[in-house]
Every structure is written in structure tokens, then in C-alpha cells.
Amino acid sequence: MNAAPRIASLVPSLTELLVELGLGDRLVARTGFCIHPAEALRAVPKVGGTKDVNLAKLRRLAPTHVLVNVDENRRETVEALAGWGADAPQLIVTHPVGPDDNLGLIDQLVGIFGHLPGVAARAAALRSAVQTELDATRADGRVPQQVLYLIWRDPWMTVARDTYLSAMLARIGWRTLPANEGGSHGAARYPVVRGDEIWLADVQQVLLSSEPYSFGAKDVDAVRTLCPTAALRLVDGEMLSWYGARAVPGLRYLRALAG
Question: How confident is the model at residue 259 (pLDDT cuts 50, 70, 90)?
Fold first, then answer.
């Protein structure tokens, strides 16, 4: 099993990370949202989305390892994979909730795949690069901001403070509203905004994500009804919410965002 792993990734960030670690040629399945890096993934079969995995197709591809994430995949999917009996793959469950967790994520994959040629060296280089960006990305001296980060429309949806995305913004002193945590998993991590919340008056900036809903100029007027006095800004959701290899350019992007 360890000699020739057949890896399926059901998480876009993790798929990108596997390629970065030199494991792209071990990938036998990905989701339709696993699009980076495009050239390396072109020939890797798709097995549906992160929430609606085609389990029958995935089983036919006979993965020995399947990477999942607490936020992005359904518990039912994981339970189904575990129930495959003799065909059950090794499940690699991930749950980074802040930029520092990228170091542990890299170590987690090294612990499983580090015996393969080149993986440990690539992981060490990436780990060093992530640490450099973490050290350079601090809230010290920055003006604190109260922000509303929107990820969806109809209904409006945002992020709780114990999500990876919120922790990224906190790295530069930008605190997301509402000021609550959503718990280890579940819908409360991505609360709905009704539009009549008192705390909306405290929002200084509204950040409109490029994913999973692609906000654009068409949405600006509607957003202004939520926070009429707040500044609005379109932001790259991949840079702020993808972990793993994306943390390196993501932390740089975050510093540029702060100015």
C-alpha cells in the first residue's frame, strides 16, 4: 500500500498541495473544483463535487488513500468510504482552522507520504516558505478593522471567527463580524445574515469573495443595503481561504490587501 499509493483528493486546496509535494502522478481522482494547477490535473478523473461525490466512480478508481476536510466534505461521504470493507481506503482527515495550521498540515502528509522520492525535500522547502510568510504577516502597527466577509448571496452568508478564512483576516488585525464562533463543524461556521442585525452598523469594510459565490459589480447595490456606510471591496477568495501551498501567495496577498 505504501509502495504505490493511489490518491484521491476531495478538496481543492489539498489537491494543489499534493501536486506541490510531487505527488501529482499518484492522483487517481479529484473533484470538479480541484482546478489548480490545471496542467498537472488535466488527466486526473473527476468524481463530482466536494459535497456530492460520485462514490461509485470513486470506488472503481480504487484509491488507497482519500483526502477529505471537515468543512468541505460531508460526514456521510466519509462514513460511506469507511464502509467499503476490504476496498476501504486510508482516510486522511484534515481541518486547518488558521494559517499556522498549514505547518501541521504539511507534516501530516509527510507522515504518510514522506517515504516517497522527493516528497520530504519538497515539504521542507514549502514549510520554510510558509513559516517565512507567517513571520512577515502580523497585525502589529496596523489599524484594526471590523469586516463582514460575504461568501454567498440569497441568502447572505458569512464566516464565523473560528474558520480558516476569519483567522487569516485576523492575522492583519481585521476581525470578522458577527463576533461568534461556529464550533468544530456544521452550518454555524457559515452563518446567514438576515440584514437587520445590530452589529451591521459596526462594519467598516465589506469584503466580497470571488468564491464560492462570485461577487461582482452586479451585487454592489444590494450589498450597500446591508452596510450603507461601509467600504466595499472585491477580494480573491482562493487566496484567502485555500490552505496548503496556497498559503504562501495567500499571506502575501493578505499583506497587500492591508496596505
Answer: confident
Q: Do both 57 and 161 map to the same domain?
A: no
Confidence category of residue 185, pLDDT binned at 50, 70, 90: confident
Same domain, 175 and 101: no
Q: Is the pLDDT of residue 200 over 80?
A: yes
**Same domain for 52 and 81:** yes
pLDDT at position 3 is 58
The answer to whether residues 130 and 151 belong to one domain is no
- Secondary structure string (H, E, C) spanning the chain: CCCCCCEEECCHHHHHHHHHCCCHHHEEEECCCCCCCHHHHCCCCECECCCCECHHHHHHCCCCEEEEECCCCCHHHHHHHHCCHHHCCEEEEECCCCCCHHHHHHHHHHHHHCCCCCHHHHHHHHHHHHHHHHHHCCCCCCCCEEEEEECECCCEECCCCCCHHHHHHHCCCEEECCCCCCCCCCHHHCCEECCCCHHHHHCCEEEEECCCCCCCHHHHHHHHHHCCCCEEEEECHHHHHCCHHHHHHHHHHHHHHHC
d(CA 69, CA 12): 10
Q: CA 174 to CA 193: how far, in whole Å?
A: 19
- Find the mean pLDDT for residues 145-170: 97
